[in-house]
Amino acid sequence: METLGNTSNTIKQYIIGIDAASHKFDVSWLKDTNKFTYRSKVLPNNPSGYLKLLEWIHKNITTDLSTIHVVMEATGVYHELLAYFLHDQGMAVSIVNPAYVHNYAKSLATVHKTDKGDSQIIARFGYERHPQVWQPEPKSVRELKAKLNRLDALKVDLQREENRLHTAQISGVPDEVMLSILQIRQALSQSIAELEKDVDEHIDKHPDLKRDVSLLQSIPCVGRETSMRMAVLYHSKQFEKASQMAAFLGLVPRQRESGKYQGKVMLSKRGNSKLRALLYFPAMNACRFNPDIKSQHARLLSRGKVKMQTIGAAMRKLVHICFGVLKHQTVYQSRVAVI
Q1: What is the DSSP secondary structure assignment for residue 206, as one 8-state letter?
Q2: What are the tens digits of pLDDT across the range 286-335?
Q3: What one-character-per-residue DSSP string does 6-52 give?
Q4: Where are the domains positioned within the chain?
Q5: C-alpha 160: how far from chain center
Q6: Which DSSP category does 132 fall into?
Q7: Which CATH number is correct for 2-129, 6.10.140.1670, 3.30.70.260, 3.90.550.10, 3.30.420.140?
Q8: What is the pTM (predicted TM-score) of this model?
Q9: Which of 85, 158, 253, 315 could hold 283 in an S-S bridge, CB 3.0 to 4.6 Å?
Q10: Nearest alpha carbon to residue 280 among 226, 213, 230, 237
């Protein structure tokens, strides 16, 4: 428990660390901030588990949820539903970059590397570092994110059916099997087309989203898919500067300290791998057609950097440019002379 405010108007705040995984989440309440003792609980990562967490908090900590400060790591999608739920219950929620917690944990040699230990580290990090309280994105952004995630899933399913169709055409299968593949393929294609139309209409209905997507598409080599997802990312996280967005996507360089790559500088590859992969081809094209990135690309090659290093730098630069046009709400303007 920590206290906020002056002595005449002290507010008690209880710190809880949560380490979320796909099927469960580990909870640690920092019970004593002098001895750093904890009370812990493991719960299923589903709505039933969220309600059980509320019961556990009411029974063991407090019924005044406004005095609860929950600290979580940004773990892909595993933490999201729980974060929304806790925020809606009136708790303060902080979602922190895992890299910050990882670096902090290096100084805590007495804490063992377990899920329980991770949630304790997160709680202690919250107590000592006072991370910024998270504010959920607007409803329009949350809905767009859900639609895009569903669209991605449908496209994966369609690609699987395309692969099955290719195999069936080569190997020869009964007509009934071929018909089933074609029917599912057709249904998926139709669902994708309908959802893509719905996404376009959703963006058109929300002027802020529409403007952001338009601003992003003013950047050479940033198309519809990239612009929508970068707009969602920007509004879903509380990035204060472009480097934080790049770090979230795993686009910051790090030096390998062991193994056959010892001494080489590579991308950290932490964070959102899907969006990082989506940026790969736009960055490749940007090395040829985006003035700022083309200039950077040539400069890095002249210094002896290999192709993959220049593409990684291009991806990072592209993220910085996207952040800039959204933060300043201005169309892209090249910083180098266009020849």
Answers
A1: -
A2: 999 999 999 999 999 999 998 888 999 999 999 999 999 999 999 999 98
A3: -GGG-EEEEEEEEEE-SSEEEEEEEEETTTTEEEEEEEESSHHHHHH
A4: 2-129, 139-205, 217-328
A5: 25
A6: P
A7: 3.30.420.140
A8: 0.70
A9: 315
A10: 226
